[in-house]
Amino acid sequence: MGQVIGSLQDKLQGRQWKERQVRKITDKAFDHFKDESGKSEEEGLTFEDVYIAVLEIYNDINKYLPGPHYDPPSKEKLLIMMEEYDFDVNKRLDREEFAEFIRKLTADSLCHISLKLVITFVAAPLVALMAKRATEQVPRVGPVVQRVPNSVYASIIALGVVLAQKSGDDCV
């Protein structure tokens, strides 16, 4: 019971919970590359390690999160960012530097995905229900619309928004 309440408190705290989840992901990626290369914790990740980690992270974003395909930044941009986050100027990123680097790198993509989810699953159903109420007064259409349950009507509109977003993503 205590674990359930603790988990609920974490989710209600929102931003702190999200930050911990992002940190778990960056720690896992850091440990994977550190162990694979046989380097010690203090040595950090080289540019090649960071580049491969970024490719894998963007692959996971594209695989598991809705929305368009997000291309990872170019090697040149990654090199410039790596220099910016290499605070001890040793051409390697330690755990803290790597976590900040990944947080900054993925912030725009994750913000765009969150916005699309809010539009699809919150705004679209609300607009659908308002449109349903407005069309109930239209002759011949109104009685048909009144018979459709609100949940079904909102789901159909939300599905339409998802399909419209997908077709818009294909055109870009």
TrEMBL record:
**Any one GO MF annotation of this record:** calcium ion binding
Q: Which domain of life is it from?
A: Eukaryota
PROSITE patterns named among the record's database cross-references: EF_HAND_2
Any matching Pfam family:
DUF7874
Q: Which positions fall inside the EF-hand domain?
A: 73-108
Q: Which SUPFAM superfamilies match?
A: EF-hand
Sorted alphabetically, which InterPro entries does this protein's record hold? Answer: DUF7874, EF-hand-dom_pair, EF_hand_dom
Protein name, entry field: EF-hand domain-containing protein
